[in-house]
Fold:
Amino acid sequence: MGYLVLIGTRKGLFTATSDNRTDWEVKGPVILDKDGFTAVAEIYSVAADAATGRILIGADTFFGPSIWRSGDYARTWSEPEKAPMAFPQDLPYRPLDFSEAAGIDQPESDQNNTVKRIWQLAFGPGERVWAGVEPTSLWVSDDGGQTFAFNQPLWDHPEHTTWASGAGGPAVHTIVPDPADPEALTIAISSGGIYQTDDDGQSWTGITKGITADYSPEDAPESGQCIHKVTRGTDSTLFVQSHGPAYRSTRPDGGWTNISGDLPTNFGFAMIAHPTLDGNVIAWPCTESMERTPPGRQVGPWRTTDSGETWNAWTDGLPTDPYFGGVLRDGACTDAAADPGWYFGTRCGDIWTATDSGGTWNSIAAHLPDVLCVRAIETP
Structure:
């Protein structure tokens, strides 16, 4: 048994492999040759399947956004001959950010719906792949990620007029499949809220009511909240890090419980639920100011074992000198092993790992480019 970590950065995809999660071999960046031209891509999303070795990455290259594919645990790569997704030509143009929504003129040549970035990839059953995209849209593939179909019902949702652009851009940035129901899905939208479907994307229900938005005229609007991350516990409890407090809910239609009491800040991005233990979640708080640095300049996660009633810092082995690189929403993960390994990457290009049994963080790599996303799996 081995372990593979996939590290998406602003200058390409790096991989780290290990037999023991202590000694690591780091390679990269992965570069694909296209028509005699090589370019390092920004990697904003990664999906990896431990059982089959399938890996998809959302690559933003000189040629535009694409999806690179591997079927052998990142040993070899390919990409579709054509762009894997394109908006319907007859789809009415929708403003992409605050300035356009506010009525600032957009050049006529730019007034179209264009795939700008692939923020999230998630495997469903069989050959199903979901993709969250900027501008705010959801796409689905039933051929393993070679081609994608546009989800019109989400685009047409009546609450779309309340969706705006977060600092990173207007996008579906989080996709959480339900392992118990292949037709159920939870998604999170930048400055849009949280939505669920139980009919394979044919209809969508907003479940964000009760999550506060101190930047909004309403304290807790029906939608429009800036959600940073959603993760699902083993008992199906949803845990949320918003642009403000963290929350949990077992029945979102009945409300949300603020669980930020012991956290050092009411702000953060990454949040990961334990693969087997109920109520066990790790979060990476950061300062709310635009500098987005770790609280007290101390890098490290905080952990709860009681669904957020209490939190404790988990910093054994991490730097104690001032640290300025935060962890982005997809910059942390678990490998879902029997003895789970935890991983996170920072905007300073450092990658760290720890296990439940070990308890101490160890360095995988240092001084890589700005880390955008991290995924880890067990390998044969």
Residues 220 and 363 are 41 Å apart (CA to CA). Residues 98-104, 106-110 have pLDDT under 50 and may be disordered. The radius of gyration is 20 Å.
